[in-house]
Amino acid sequence: MMNQHLSRRIEVDEQSGTIGQWLLDRGRLTPSQAEKVLRLQRESGLRFGEAALSLGFVAQSDIDQALAIQFAFPYFSADDLSFSAKLFAAFRPFSAEVEALRNLRSQLLLRWFGQGHKALAIAQPNQASLDRCLAANLAIVFSQLGERTLLIDANLRRETRSDLFGQAGQPGLSELLSQRAGIEVITRLDELCDLSVLESGALPPNPQELLSRSGFEGLLRALSEQYQVIIVDTPAFDRASDVLLVAARAGGTLLSVEADATALEGLTLLCDALQQLGSEVLGSVLHR
């Protein structure tokens, strides 16, 4: 009862807004600490977050996260072990590399998604030694913009299941395309408000056949009615031609190129094959 009463006081307090409630709900503040913060706030005129910081009850990172929630810009805290550190757009949203992703997002909005397209395939000519997770991080920055975003892992040849979002072992695209599961295999990530994920699922014996069937094209068409942005990750071109099937269905492709690891010949072959299938190559991202 006391905690509920305190929650109401924080909710209606003009200066604390929802920061105090967020800190309480996530256990960053105890009810007794929140009482002391409110008392100092009244006496000093400080904002709730400033008062909590001055008393040493919370860290600046806690306040930053609470403010991000207020402004609909969620991201992960550094100590969150539920997700892979490779999701740098969610863990380090103010870094230079994420700012570069936002610039890419702006270009894609103008040149592709703003033109009525919904799906975009991410393709790489060869299996680079370093997994850049471009598709996942690009999907995150679109979701941070408030776009209803879906990330599809269409790499049905990956020997080790992706565990970027802590969902390894969950059914996914392969089960959906083989009609062994329904649309419920798509997971909405509450921590990132507007982002949903469709994992690859179990490793099938016939990945190319699954992606070639009309079911995949129909799935993309149906999902386009629900999402504003669909980012589709694919296996490397030097491993399989699955990327061509996916890119043709998506209509547009963004290339992921690794400096000193991607041969010009392989890149040219991939671009030519994509264009022959009618998938527009929107550009490339060079990783150094």
Under CATH at level 1, the class of the largest domain stands as Alpha Beta
* Quaternary class: single chain
The residue ranges in which pLDDT falls below 50 over 5 or more consecutive positions are: 1-17
Number of strands: 7
Question: Major sheet: order of its strands?
Answer: 3-4-2-5-1-6-7
CATH-defined superfamily of the largest domain: P-loop containing nucleotide triphosphate hydrolases
Radius of gyration: 22 Å
- Count structural domains: 2
Shape by Cα distribution: elongated
- What structural category characterises the helix and strand content? alpha/beta
**At CATH's second level, what is the architecture of the largest domain?**
3-Layer(aba) Sandwich
CATH domain topology of the largest domain? Rossmann fold
Helical content, roughly? 40-55%
Order of helices and strands: HHHHHHHEHEHEEHHEHEHE
Question: Which strand-content bin applies to the residues?
Answer: 5-15%
Major pleated sheet:
7 strands, mixed
The number of helical segments is 13
Mean pLDDT metric: 86
Protein name: Chain length determinant protein tyrosine kinase EpsG
GO molecular function, one term: ATP binding
Organism: Paludibacterium purpuratum
Keywords: ATP-binding, Kinase, Nucleotide-binding, Transferase
Which descriptors apply to this entry?
288 residues, Rossmann fold, 43% helix, transferase, P-loop_NTPase, protein tyrosine kinase activity, ATP-binding
Question: What would you note in describing this structure?
Answer:
One of its GO terms (molecular function) is protein tyrosine kinase activity. It comes from Paludibacterium purpuratum. Keywords: ATP-binding, Kinase, Nucleotide-binding, Transferase. The structure is a single chain. This protein is an alpha/beta fold. The protein folds into 2 domains: 69 residues; 200 residues, P-loop containing nucleotide triphosphate hydrolases (Rossmann fold, 3-Layer(aba) Sandwich). It is 43% helix and 12% strand. It has 13 helices and 7 strands. The protein has a 7-stranded mixed sheet, sandwiched between helices. Helix 1 packs parallel to helix 3 and helix 7 crosses helix 8. The longest helix is centred in the middle third of the chain and has 16 residues. The radius of gyration is 22 Å and the shape is elongated. The N terminus is likely disordered.
